[in-house]
Specification:
Elements (H helix, E strand, L loop, with lengths): L7 E5 L3 H12 L9 E6 L6 H5 L5 E4 L3 H9 L3 E4 L6 H8 L8 E4 L5 H11 L6 E2 L1 E3 L20 E4 L8 H12 L3 E4 L2 H27 L4 H7 L2 H7 L6 H10 L1 H24 L2 H19 L7 H17 L9
Parallel strand pairs: 1-2, 1-4, 2-3, 4-5, 5-6, 8-9
Antiparallel strand pairs: 7-8
Helix pairs in contact: 4-5, 7-11
């Protein structure tokens, strides 16, 4: 069994994801060498003092601390951007002067084409250091108090390697996430953004929109008082960070707008079926959706030739960057 070991990891943004990563890495793997130092960086030192007090990190720094950042980054193994996606480029520019040696940089953002562009703009010839990543894990809660040591256990982490990355770079980042109990797979940035516009970004927009629709009514409180578990389940993700989701929607606007248009087309079709009282057609649509949801929930596969082709391409990429080290979706 191979282990992920490190002397120092620097995490910019020690909230739910950054804090959970720190906890998982501090716990380490059975039989592995002891974890190294984890440095947390916040907008100010005070903003990460809570993480330090909770034992999530070993050292707290503010973003304006030049001397502290230089010392922390000088010999870091990996640097993680775990802030809202709009902050990726500013953070990369902030750290760029002090990146040396074989230090790698990665992120945890839900959008990847913008992260790739940010890395190339901020790091230039040093963009080879940057390995975009997206852990498919989270909670509706935010902040370091919500961090969980096992948040990534048995979850997927998508890597979107750059052409500039040497093969060992994505392999090293994959090993880090595997040490947290995650499975890793690879997609292009464009594939990633198209997929998550559908299965993550659009659902969040819909949850926010439903709450907004209700809040605009004069009887909003009555509706919320009488809402049941179905409404609670559907709108759970609307409790997520407004800052984070604002930035995600703008960063992935092209793919998200395409999915919004497709969703509105389906809604319009359903509206017409309801207006027509077409019970047979409604039953067909609802039945297909219900069967698909049941199959997916049970771990089954809904055959999709586009999906098969995408994952076949991803397999070629994985074989090139980390033979045997990454996992395709089943």
């Amino acid at each position: 069994m191979s282990y992920f070991s490190f002397n120092k990891i620097v995490i910019f943004g020690v909230g739910l994801i950054g804090g959970s990563l720190a906890l998982a890495l501090k716990r380490g793997q059975p039989g592995a060498p002891a974890a190294g130092c984890i440095v947390g960086v916040g907008r100010s030192a005070a903003s990460v003092e809570r993480a330090l007090a909770l034992g999530v990190i070993d050292l707290a720094l503010g973003l304006d601390d030049d001397a502290g950042l230089e010392a922390a980054l000088r010999d870091a193994d990996v640097v993680i951007c775990a802030a809202p996606v709009a902050q990726t480029e500013p953070l990369l520019r902030r750290m760029a002067p002090w990146l040396r040696g074989q230090t790698l940089v990665s992120d945890v953002g839900s959008t990847k084409a913008d992260a790739v562009a940010a890395a190339r703009a901020a790091l230039g010839a040093e963009a080879w250091r940057f390995v975009p990543a997206h852990p498919i894990a989270g909670r509706e809660l935010s902040g370091v108090e919500a961090a969980l040591v096992d948040l990534f256990h048995e979850r997927d982490v998508v890597l979107c390697p750059l052409a500039e990355n040497p093969p060992q770079a994505p392999a090293r980042i994959a090993a880090m996430w595997q040490a947290c109990g995650a499975h890793t797979l690879s997609l292009s940035a464009a594939q990633h953004d198209a997929v998550f516009a559908s299965v993550s970004h659009l659902p969040h927009v819909l949850a926010f929109a439903l709450l907004e629709q209700i809040l605009r009514g004069s009887d909003a409180q009555l509706k919320l008082d009488l809402a049941g578990s179905g409404f609670r389940d559907f709108t759970r993700i609307a409790a997520a960070s407004p800052e984070m989701w604002r930035d995600i929607c703008v960063a992935n606007r092209a793919a998200l707008l395409s999915d919004l248009d497709a969703y509105q087309a389906v809604l319009q079709e359903l509206r017409q079926l309801i207006a027509d009282g077409d019970t047979a057609a409604l039953h067909t649509v609802f039945g297909r959706a219900s069967a698909a949801r049941e199959a997916w929930s049970a771990g089954g596969v809904i055959h999709d030739t586009a999906r098969d082709a995408t994952l076949a391409d991803a397999g070629d990429t994985l074989a090139a960057v980390a033979p045997g080290g990454l996992k395709l979706l089943d």
